Amino acid sequence: MSLELPALGYGAANVGNLFRALSDDEAWAVLEAAWDAGIRYFDTAPHYGLGLSERRLGAFLQTKPRDEFVISTKAGRLLRPNPAHQPGGLDTDNDFHVPDDLRREWDFSEAGIRASIAESQERLGLDRIDLLYLHDPERHDLDLALAEAFPALEKARSEGLVGAIGIGSMVSDALSRAVREADLDLIMVAGRYTLLEQPAAADVLPACAETGTGIVAASVFNSGLLAQSEPKRDGRYEYGQLPEELWDRLVRIASICRAHDVPLPAAAIQFPLQSQLVRSVVVGGSRPAQLRQNAEYAALEIPADLWAELAEDGLIPA
């Protein structure tokens, strides 16, 4: 697989109005801050803001030399008119502050995958998609994805419609099975291989080692728990409250980082890259200052002793 990924990427869900609405100018400023900070890998999806993220990101990247950046988007859910839309209705059930005049429709057929590629390209306004992930297929039907969607992705890659293919998911079983049963270039592991918890180390990483599949680590701040050096007990954890066991781990990790004078978010960004299988870490952000700070954290020199002590305490794999 010839696609080279920068070590740090930007996940563009926020410019699709995830959690809060951004104006076009605010979204542009975020993307400009990412570019100025040296970020050259950008990840998006039709799901993010019902196409808004793709449109905003594409408009920005159209102003940049095409050979200077890598872009990934996702397939599996088509955007179609929403007959239940009411004036003023928003997609807040999915945490996006955009009008819900469209809805997501699962489609793993070859025709659906090709339609997804064509529609994403139109929204992006770019001549090619470097990397296409199948987005959360286990939320619909993983067996169907393996039977239809992944073969369609492989065919699209062989025809040059996309450069590389993979799966994006936060479910380790789905990731490992896809790696073993489909011919994938890269997978996006969301929240399952982080400084706080590494369930993907049990099965996903070994599967990738066996098949030569690269990994992109996403959601490395664990819903924001690792985004600041002093963790907060009332922080959100995925879709509910933080389990006591993970809170105890978080406190121990933060204490060790403090002892080594390493900001917790810097360790969170750089931890996945300690594995040779991980090609890139993708982080989000809705404010320019966050993008600049994350780039600084990614470049910070972290002493090897920090990783050694975390491993000795059983907080990360040895």
Distance between the termini: 28 Å
Order of helices and strands: EHEHEEEHEHEHEHEEEHHEHH
The whole-angstrom Rg is 19 Å
Number of helical stretches of at least 4 residues: 10
The CATH architecture comes to Alpha-Beta Barrel
Strand order of the largest sheet: 1-2-3-6-7-8-9-12
Q: Could you estimate the helical fraction of the residues in percent? A: 25-40%
Instruction: Report the structural category.
Output: alpha/beta
Number of strands: 12
Largest sheet, in brief, is: 8 strands, parallel, barrel
CATH first level: Alpha Beta
- The 3D shape can be described as globular
Name of the CATH homologous superfamily:
NADP-dependent oxidoreductase domain
Q: How confident overall, as mean pLDDT?
A: 95
CATH topology: TIM Barrel
Stretches where pLDDT is under 50 for at least 5 consecutive residues are: none
Strand content: 15-25%
| Total count of domains | 1
